[in-house]
Design goal:
It is a single chain. With 489 residues, the protein is mainly alpha-helical. It is 72% helix and 2% strand. The chain has one domain (14-487): MFS general substrate transporter like domains (Growth Hormone, Chain: A). The protein has a two-stranded antiparallel sheet with strand order 1-2. A hairpin with a 5-residue loop joins strand 1 and strand 2. The chain is globular. The mean pLDDT is 86.
Amino acid sequence: MSDTAGLNFGRFAGKMKILHLSWVAFFITFVVWFNHAPLLGAISVSLGLSQAEIKTLLILNVALAIPARVLIGMLTDHFGPRLTYSLLLLICSVPCIMFALAENYQQAALARFLLGFIGAGFVIGIRLVSEWFPANELGLAEGVYGGWGNFGSAAAAMSLPTIALLFGGDDGWRYAIGITGVICGLYSIVFYLTISDTPKGSTYYKPKAVGAMEVTSSGDFFFLLLMKIPMYLVLALLVWKLSSSASALLSPTTATLIYGLLGLLYCFEVYQCYRVNKSVFTTPVAAIHRYQFKQVAILNLLYFATFGSELAVVSMLPLFFSETFGLDMVSAGLLASSYAFMNLVSRPGGGWISDHFGRKRSLLVLTAGLAIGYFMMASINQHWPLAIAVGVAMLCSFFVQAGEGAVFATVPLIKRRLTGQIAGMTGAYGNVGAVCYLTILSFVSYQMFFTIIGLTAAISLLCLIFLKEPEGTISEINEDGTVELIGVS
């Protein structure tokens, strides 16, 4: 690293400049991604939406981020974070403005579905930050990036209802959402003009091939294919939901065609994985260049329980507080923002804990805490004092978001040149979790919803037993054929 100074958050130069510009980019993506949640009351009245249609919008909002995070991870590793993030922000400003201009449920649903793509922005910053910070600072740096960026959902909940009221009238929500789209487009230009992919003199390592994640053993090849299946199954679940609900957007014939397309896409992905990794069946990879794919798989499951639940809870919590305690839109949005508000300290805190007390040990403690937190939230009802209910939500969110910070304190330490793809797959599992949880919510009570999340967290805790603590170095090959060792502990 060319910049050896510690983390001075008041500094705007070198690696700290990159960190600040990156978390602001991520912050904007989350404002845009969840700008509808605190305004659902006004949106439903304006567009005449039913309760079933509102819940469908919540699912659509996170659906496209599943394949998008995998795709964006590949593009980031190949083209670099600067170009990839700038284009993502610019392109996604368009469906944001489309949603602000929507006149009916179908138009709103299409815009929300397309806006799921902006959820892939997180992956880009993970690779960018890992290029600028050493291993002993990486957990905190990634935690700040993720936590301060994630705060965008809380900022949306706190500010957008007030902005909508300031504009007033039936179209107040449209102005509030449209403003976020304009900001997104403008910041794409700022990001492109001010960011560098690596410190001066550093090498940006790219994958050997484009199209699929590299693995380093034949067993890991089949493990990779197995871990791809849930992403396709949850997309099929989404199609089923959109074709069978009272607010069906897809006809049975269209749904059948999409099921077939998903099957063909999986077959194509199997082919791509084999094309990229066929050498592992004939030529063993040298031990110095191997990594264990089980590390990726375990982190996937942990992010399913942590970020998946956060996405789902952030989407429904304003309605939960409103219906449980009889609050108005502004009050419910402000109180619900307390869940995401904890991102300011909890996700960086999780990264810091991981840096100082070990990756695996930190994840064990934090995952146990989030399981207990959701079981506590499952017991909240209208008889609880509101202050205690909010306090429980904030306590639960600390463990959820600190767990996320600990997960992504580990992701960049597995294989540097694959960081974007690993982050993409792990991030996609977060969205898989969100779709699963929100689909479950459409069938069960709020209490059962929180209980199910707690149970999946407990299962993830058991899987953590098999995680290997990153230590020593990982190797990458320079263009001249020399091997560079990168410290991970």
